[in-house]
Amino acid sequence: MRHFSRTLSRTLSGLALSLGLIGAAAASSPASAAQCGGDFNAFISNFSREAQAAGISPGVINQAFAGVAQDQAVLQFDRRQRYTFNKTFEQYVSTRVGPGRIKTGRFMMQKNASLLSRIEQRFGVPAEIIVAIWGLETDFGKGDMGKRPVIRTLATLAHDCRRTELFQGELLAALKIVQRGDLRLDDLVGAFAGEIGQTQFLPSSYIKYGVDFDGNGHVDLRHSVPDVLASTANLLHTNGFKKGADYHEGSANFDAMREWNRAVIYRKTIAYFADKLAAP
Question: Which positions carry the signal peptide feature in this UniProt record (predicted)?
């Protein structure tokens, strides 16, 4: 959702999601941030020491940073973002929620009906909201989840002084994902701000909200549909989403979805898509 191969509006919506989830990053930040700017290798060396002090094993650190280099494409992409929507809701939703996506969404609701029912019972988030987010983010896991190495992406953004503390926190969280065994390093790939998986979690949110719903001992937000959908519901539930209540603009649940995406137009699109999925 945040890649060169997608439309600009979809890219902007994804980065709005990133902004919506940055609050979780503070909990993952190193105790003392490495000095941004300057020599990139020196920065990585300093950050590595802080990551080890934060509990990351030397083996994970060495493996993660072996041969890592700055990604200039990530910096160029970051520089040109404005984090805004330039379309009306009607214009935007027409590009995101068409008959084909609605049809597929209804099929996915039927296919995963038992799973979604268990998730709703536990977290109180209806199936149509979860599936709407899933569809908007990565076309129900069939679309582009990103192909950029997350460690390289986040190291590049952490070294950059614009938002170094934010992305140092995300970089540390990404190392924790590897250390926990949730994803292998070669499977830790994502979008242009380091978002991961079928509903595009930042690493800090992966750590904070991720749920092992398939019971295999790991939180896998790339391959495990139960983990993906339950973690998405857990994020909303944790931030105040109430079962059975209205989720449209002006409601408390609409405000709770702000943690998913701060942009009103995107949350209105989630609600609109959910209505279409829930309709007979």
Answer: 1-33
pTM: 0.88
What is the tens place of the pLDDT at every residue in 162-178? 999 999 999 999 999 99
- Is residue 259 within 8 Å of 236, Cβ to Cβ? yes
Query: Measuring CA to CA, how many Å separate 113 from each of 118, 149, 221, 244?
Result: 9, 33, 19, 17
Q: Where are the domains of the chain?
A: 8-81+149-183, 89-144+209-278
pLDDT digits (tens, 9 = 90+) for 23-76: 444 445 555 679 999 999 999 999 999 999 999 999 999 999 999 999 999 999
Q: Find out whether 70 and 159 touch, Cβ atoms under 8 Å.
A: yes
DSSP string over 175-236: HHHHHHTSS-GGG-EE-TT--BTTTTB-HHHHHHH----S-SSS--TTT-HHHHHHHHHHHH
Q: 89-144+209-278: which CATH topology? A: Lysozyme (1.10.530)
C-beta separation of 233 from 259 below 8 A = no
Distance CA 44, CA 192 (A): 19
Determine the 3-state secondary structure of 143 from DSSP.
Answer: coil
Whether the Cβ atoms of residue 228 and residue 199 lie closer than 8 Å to each other: yes
In whole angstroms, give the CA distance from residue 3 to residue 8: 9
CA 185 to CA 174: how far, in whole Å?
A: 9
Q: Find out whether 228 and 141 touch, Cβ atoms under 8 Å.
A: yes
Catalytic residues: 137
Distance CA 149, CA 133 (A): 24
User: What are the structure tokens assigned to 150, written together?
Assistant: 């997350």
Tokens of 277: 């999925």
Q: What does the DSSP 8-state code read for residue 70?
A: -
